[in-house]
């Protein structure tokens, strides 16, 4: 199975790239997707995640063909 990952804003720099494609055979949560794609990097605190453009929690289970996005929280003032 395969999913697409996208990193936004400062998380592009943390990951070292704007996108990834992850191939896997077992059930993965969004948090496990980050760990597989970035095994040597911690997921920064307050990171927001979305699957197929819908906000989800880190324990959301991804499916084949999903797009998983990681981005820092939006702030304004």
Report on this model:
The protein starts with a strand and ends in a 6-residue tail after the last strand. The protein has one domain: Beta-grasp domain (Ubiquitin-like (UB roll)), CATH 3.10.20. Helices cover 18% and strands 30% of the residues. It is α+β, with helices and mostly antiparallel strands and 77 residues long. It is globular, with a radius of gyration of 12 Å.
- Biggest beta-sheet profile: 5 strands, mixed
CATH homologous superfamily assignment:
Beta-grasp domain
Mean pLDDT across every amino acid position: 93
Strand-pairing-aware structural class: alpha+beta
Order of helices and strands: EHEHEEE
Radius of gyration (Å): 12 Å
Query: What's the total count of β strands?
Result: 5
The CATH C-level class name: Alpha Beta
Question: Do you know the CATH topology?
Answer: Ubiquitin-like (UB roll)
Task: Give a brief outline of the structure.
By secondary structure, the protein is an alpha+beta fold. The chain has helices at about 10-15, 30-35, and strands spanning about 1-5, 20-25, 50, 55, 65-70.
Kindly list the characteristics that best describe this protein.
Ubiquitin-like (UB roll), alpha+beta, single chain, 77 residues, globular, 30% strand
Provide the fold topology:
Blueprint: E1 2-7, H1 10-15, E2 19-23, H2 30-37, E3 48-51, E4 54-56, E5 67-71
